[in-house]
Amino acid sequence: MNDDALTRARSKAFLRLLPILVLCYIIAYVDRNNVGIAKLTMKDDLPAFNDQVFGFGIGVFFWGYLLLEVPGTILVERWSARKWICRIMVTWGFIAAMTAFVKTPMQFYGIRFLLGLAEAGFFPGVIVYMTHWFPKQDRARALATFLISSPIAMMLSPIISQTVQHFGTTVTLNGVEVTYPPLLGLQGWQWIFIMWGIPAVVLGAMVPFILPDRPKDAKWLTPEEQDALETTLEEEKKMVGAKKHISLAKALTNPVVLLLALAYFGTTAANYGVETFLPSILKDWYKLTPSQAGLLTILPAIIVLMGQLLIGWSSDRNQERRWHASLPILLGVLGFALAPWTHGHFVLTMACFMMAAGGMKSYMPAFWTLPNLFLTSTAAAGSIGLINSLGNLGGFVGPSVLGYIKESTHSYDIGLYTLSFLGMTSAVIILSLRIAKKQNQPPSGTP
Known about the structure:
By secondary structure, the chain is an all-alpha fold.
């Protein structure tokens, strides 16, 4: 094999594919979570939408996600990533924009469920897609680069959404009430959903033309580079398969796969619980305006971005996965547990939530390399889909529990302790697994 050709191919894959995938996931993440920003003014127009309704509705997204996640991921492996991603993005863009017109809690639940159905298969599909392009020594770093989409989305969403959020609201500025009329008859929270739905449709329609399925389909690789990369990926697949071949059915019932799903469930519950309610917590604890509360969510996102890049780089450099996944989660657990004690001390509160958010997302580059260490091909694709779909039910539990506890106790404290416990459980599970204590050293050469 030509090492120079392989190095060039790996570099080109990073530069050509990751910007497109990052942009797609930024839009996906905003479309999924911009309800946390819209919520700050949405309930002024829809009085029936209390914290419990929002928490349940936000979580219903993941029930739709569950139904199509595994089939969608297998389609990426056996059919076409670019065609499936196109379908996903166009449908979720339309459905996300339709959220602007909900009037009742049941309509809200229904549209969130449909959004989950539309987006199902995107995230695990991209993880599988990366195994078609990035050798083992590059995978955590590639995943880390892809995963910075979520903190970038967390930073962009409040900044861009603020340009329309004020329409149809009355705010107090320097002791003076200022009223902003609706724009084209629609309130600001409605424009948030519409404004972010449109890019998903446009970008989704472009994906089939800019995202090749495999190296052999990439016109920007020379035949020599295509062969070098395809050969390397095939050899790695054979090495894993030679150790233990597992059918799809056995993979989906593999105890390790189920434990990974349970671990992901805990971190997802903790992550989405605080991510959804953080603007509301800050507004409630410190009497902030919606704009102030929304913009402050940028600070945790900065920590997430740096943490994911650091964990991805360190995990690949050391070829170690379990501790790189577990230690950030434990830091997040500490942030959740300490946050209620900081009520009244703004700087300490923000430090705790920055630690919590950073920990509960920085672990992901190392975590998502674990399934491909003992599974290949369809078995790996189906297992990744199962882990993501079952684990993402935590996205239903976290916001629902936090919203229910807030309405029942009129406090976020017990909910935060609950999220801390869930995160601790996840870290213990990952550390208990007997896979990938230390991987074999990768071949020489880096892109």
